[in-house]
């Protein structure tokens, strides 16, 4: 057969074989998905970079915090976003376009190993939007795209967590992380002696939300910002937090729930917004750092 090919066809075939050989040589297969994730987590520990993993069931597993995942769907197909076993949603996922993207939730497994699946289905092609998922452990940001070509269809994505995995190998790192979390919770909850002078409560809170969704207080410790919500928020949909940059353009920020009613934001910011609701029925609470433009008054203090 090779002898019957023309000169250009032979050259093309040899090129394809060379590329295929290089890909196979560069790729490394592992007996289990867990072993592949551990190998990437070790690379992350050494050089600070981890790569996505392709599982045998066609799922793309992204290293959390390293990439902005892109989920490619198509008509007459559903896509599956899988969370970590035992991870729970703290509110309905928020999409930029809820008219043309349909979402539902499914659960597989039981107990601590139960996996939450967010099922995504587009109603049109050549449309794109973003999706924000908040859980009791972290916040996920995902780009959604509906392709007219069914060959582009990517049916499942999930994550692995290099930083957490690397701590599991090193007991001292795990103990240190646990002590730091306990310390952060203590500072946020009880304000121990000597820490008060480090806190800055100079934030104004404005918006069209009722007291159920309006922060009770906002403060920072010079590195992170803490947003204390009313206790009623634990039985309602959790607001989504976005920073407001130049021209009040929304920006993504990393944050987590220290408690069900306490947000911890990884960086200081001048302005941010908490949003509840979609489709023109949004309720917003705008947080502005006044940077000591007006003094903070403790609840027991009085104006002269």
Could you please describe the fold and organization of this structure?
It is globular, with a radius of gyration of 24 Å. The protein starts with 6 loop residues before the first helix and ends in a 15-residue tail after the last strand. Residues 1-27 and 294-304 have low confidence and may be disordered. Helices cover 21% and strands 31% of the residues. The longest helix is centred in the N-terminal third of the chain and has 20 residues, at 7-26. Strand 14 and strand 15 (250-251) form a beta hairpin. With 304 residues, the protein is α+β, with helices and mostly antiparallel strands. Strands 1-2-10-4-7-6 form a six-stranded mixed beta sheet, with helices on one face. Strands 11-19-18-14-15 form a five-stranded antiparallel beta sheet, with no helix packed on it. Strands 3-9-8-5 form a four-stranded mixed beta sheet, with no helix packed on it.
Radius of gyration: 24 Å
Mean pLDDT: 75
Question: Mind describing the biggest β-sheet?
Answer: 6 strands, mixed
Mass-distribution shape: globular
**Widest sheet: strand order?**
1-2-10-4-7-6
Return residue spans where pLDDT drops below 50 for at least 5 consecutive residues.
Answer: 1-27, 294-304
Strand percentage lies at 25-35%
Helix percentage: 10-25%
Distance between the termini: 97 Å
Summed up, the helix count is 4
Total beta strands: 19
Element-by-element helix/strand order: HHEEEEEEEEEEHHEEEEEEEEE
Helix and strand content put the structural class at alpha+beta
């Amino acid at each position: 057969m090779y002898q019957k090919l023309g000169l250009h066809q032979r050259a093309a075939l040899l090129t394809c074989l060379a590329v295929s050989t290089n890909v196979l040589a560069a790729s490394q297969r592992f007996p289990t998905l867990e072993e592949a994730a551990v190998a990437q987590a070790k690379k992350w520990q050494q050089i600070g970079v981890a790569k996505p993993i392709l599982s045998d069931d066609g799922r793309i597993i992204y290293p959390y915090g390293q990439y902005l995942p892109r989920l490619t769907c198509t008509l007459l197909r559903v896509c599956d976003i899988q969370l970590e076993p035992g991870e729970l949603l703290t509110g309905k996922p928020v999409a930029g376009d809820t008219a043309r993207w349909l979402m539902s939730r499914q659960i597989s497994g039981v107990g601590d190993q139960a996996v939450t699946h967010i099922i995504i289905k587009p109603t049109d092609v050549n449309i794109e939007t973003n999706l924000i998922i908040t859980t009791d452990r972290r916040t996920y940001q995902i780009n959604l795209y509906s392709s007219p070509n069914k060959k582009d269809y990517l049916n499942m994505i999930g994550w692995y967590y290099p930083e957490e995995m690397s701590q599991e190998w090193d007991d001292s790192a795990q103990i240190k992380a646990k002590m730091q979390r306990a310390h952060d919770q203590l500072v946020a909850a009880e304000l121990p002696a000597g820490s008060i002078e480090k806190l800055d409560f100079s934030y104004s809170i404005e918006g069209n939300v009722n007291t159920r969704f309006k922060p009770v207080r906002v403060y920072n410790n010079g590195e992170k910002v803490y947003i204390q919500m009313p206790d009623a928020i634990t039985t309602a949909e959790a607001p989504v937090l976005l920073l407001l940059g130049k021209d009040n353009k929304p920006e993504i920020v990393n944050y987590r729930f220290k408690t069900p009613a306490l947000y911890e934001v990884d960086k200081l910011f001048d302005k941010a917004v908490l949003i509840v609701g979609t489709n023109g029925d949004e309720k917003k609470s705008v947080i502005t750092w006044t940077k000591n433009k007006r003094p903070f008054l403790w609840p027991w203090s009085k104006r002269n």
